[in-house]
Design brief:
single chain; 182 residues; mainly alpha; two-stranded antiparallel ribbon; 8 helices; elongated
Length: 182
């Protein structure tokens, strides 16, 4: 039975919330660049060196680590293909990572919104908490979870953005199995 005390917003309120959602997403993607000096981490520079080596194999011939012609990106080929493609397109190391901020931020926020809406059935709560999920959190192992700045764009980030979708799928399947058994 549906709880009547929780009123669902009408279509006009939904459109306002969707516009607000889009506004917050865009602001989370663009505002940090006005107040942030772009920098990359050491891992990101190492990844870009491997990408540059992949594009021009004649570079770094006498280097101990990068001098080998063997492809060192075999452990994460999708990530290196995306970096190679964007580096060829943009030609700038920082822009290579900045290019991925809007889609990664949008996918993470959309996934968190859908996951939170599945549990709360409240648009406003889901929207606010999904915006808060974009905040960069530093874990004790010095990893980051969240999105929005170039320093957060690592190979792990590209795959962690799908975690809310996997959790949502798990809960939907779990609820379906429980409903089937009862």
């Amino acid at each position: 039975m549906e709880d009547s005390s929780r009123a669902q917003p009408d279509s006009k309120n939904r459109r306002v919330m969707i516009c607000f959602f889009v506004f917050l997403t865009v602001s989370f993607m663009l505002v940090p660049f006005a107040f942030y000096t772009p920098e990359l981490s050491g891992d990101q520079y190492n990844h870009l060196l491997k990408v540059i080596k992949r594009i021009d194999p004649s570079l770094f011939r006498n280097d101990f680590l990068l001098g080998s012609t063997q492809d060192q990106s075999a452990y994460n080929p999708i990530y290196y293909r995306m970096l190679t493609w964007s580096y060829r397109l943009l030609g700038d190391p920082l822009k290579t990572y900045v290019f991925f901020i809007p889609p990664v931020t949008f996918i993470l926020q959309l996934g968190m919104f859908l996951l939170l809406f599945y549990f709360s059935r409240n648009y406003l709560v889901s929207l606010i908490l999904s915006c808060l999920s974009l905040k960069l959190l530093h874990t004790p192992t010095l990893d980051t979870f969240g999105a929005g700045l170039p320093i957060s764009m690592h190979s792990k980030t590209f795959f962690l953005v799908f975690t809310p979708f996997l959790l949502l799928l798990f809960y939907i399947i779990y609820d379906t199995i429980l409903d089937y058994k009862m």
